[in-house]
Amino acid sequence: MVFSHDRHPDGDPGYDAPLDVAARQARAWLSGIRERPIPPRIGSDEVKDRLGRSLPESGEPAADVIERLAEGVEPGLIATGSPRFYGWVIGGTQPVALAADWLVSAWDQNTGLRTITPGAVAVEELAGEWLVDLLGLPADSEVGFTTGATTAQFSCMAAARDEVLRRAGWDVETAGLAGGPAIRFIVGAERHGTVDLAGRYLGLGSPTVVASDEQGCIRVDALRQELASGSGPAIVLLQAGNIHSGAFDDFAAAVAVAHEAGAWVHVDGAFGLWAAASPSLRHLVTGMAGADSWSTDAHKTLSVPYDCGIAIVRDGRAMHRALSVQASYLQATRFGAEPHEKVPELSRRARGIPTWAVLRSLGRTGVARLVDGLADAARGIADGVGRLPGVEVLNDVVFTQVCIALDDDRATAALSERLWSDGEVLAMTSRWRDRAVVRFSVSNWGTDASQVSRTVAAVARALDEVRSTG
Ligand SMILES: *Cc1c(COP(=O)(O)O)cnc(C)c1O
């Protein structure tokens, strides 16, 4: 009998040919990444033209599809893996993490349940324990691997919402939000936009915003005042690493003030949490471990491929109540929490495995060196670029972020455009403290002293061109 999908009657499943093309194309991309122009050369429309727009009536061999994909898309890709890429907060990929990620795809383990894949769950649990240790957080915290810091934040705040309402005598898991006590959701003026999004997902509405200081840190006096002005369940969002200044909230003071008022404290540390892994930068996060939950990314500082965020919650039971799936076919084992009790998803890939691979490869001292290297590079850029005529460094460079500006917004925007078209360095335009800025976010593990020199030289060149064309 022949089934209609029987393409390989000789029994060959056909993995080799497309994987060979993928490996060759991946190597070509990776070997060119340090020298190719960083920005994409064409837009999405042209990429669609190159790929062919209409759904083919009949198919083509898998290897040809992969060849077409790689050749068609390449000019529309951005070289985020370049050591001179400083756009947004986007990290590169360590070789060991990429290789582990390939295995994750090949193994294709549904990592929602321990019974399905004890192997993948074991790797993720080890990675979780190591992370908590490395970041100096309470040892029995629960760790979930999410798609990014946004969903990690959502996961932590779901636990927060459950717990602060439970303390107020309201079981949100059964009763829902309507008719229950209002939650005061308090943030600093310079929180990341995804904090508001997590609040929206959870039905908390817009946050109450308290003032930040000139580096973007929440003002603890303003937080105290806000907390004293009301009562009832509250969630306070603090920040490790402001995206413009890199600054860290005063955790010791802010956590104490928030806990005095009975609030749950969550720390958004998408990239800044990693300061805790460095003995020389750890002072920036003093008091942070006193919070109730923390979210971060592995796909930024730790340099694993997209996508991997990390949700860490001190009170694991609150996390399980908020996120676990209840179903007769999902019997818990006697081995502890199930993966699906810690993240929004049930079925998902084993996205924590590349994190394990990087941690195993770098070790504790290697992670510290990685984080120190990013901060060193940021200081190097601030020193070098800050010395160029007419350039002002606007922030105190305490971590990985550098914001520069020229005398007026128009010139700053022109500098940014010039850098983009030159392609040697990519830094993004933003607005901070009511000024146009060019922001360097050092997030790539390959940004060493020589790359910093090239960066400063490229900015000097672009600056000359901006000046000479008026
Ligand atoms: C990047 C970032 C986020 C969001 O993380 P995603 O991984 O993009 O979901 C949240 N907060 C801060 C401070 C960030 O830098």
UniProtKB/TrEMBL annotation:
Determine if Transferase is one of this entry's keywords. yes
Q: Which GO terms describe its molecular function?
A: aromatic-L-amino-acid decarboxylase activity; pyridoxal phosphate binding; transaminase activity
- Any Pfam family: Pyridoxal_deC
Basic and acidic residues bias spans: 40-52
Q: Is Transferase included in the keywords of this UniProt record?
A: yes
Which biological process annotations from GO are given for this protein? Answer: amino acid metabolic process; carboxylic acid metabolic process
- Where on the chain is N6-(pyridoxal phosphate)lysine found, per UniProt? K300
**Cofactor(s) demanded:** pyridoxal 5'-phosphate
Under Gene3D superfamilies, the record lists: Aspartate Aminotransferase, domain 1, dopa decarboxylase, N-terminal domain, Type I PLP-dependent aspartate aminotransferase-like (Major domain)
Q: Which UniProt keywords apply?
A: Aminotransferase, Decarboxylase, Lyase, Pyridoxal phosphate, Transferase
Chain segments carrying region Disordered: 40-59
Q: Give the UniProt family note.
A: Belongs to the group II decarboxylase family.
Protein name stated in the entry: Aspartate aminotransferase family protein
Q: Which organism is it from?
A: Agromyces badenianii
Lineage, uppermost ranks = Bacteria, Bacillati, Actinomycetota, Actinomycetes, Micrococcales
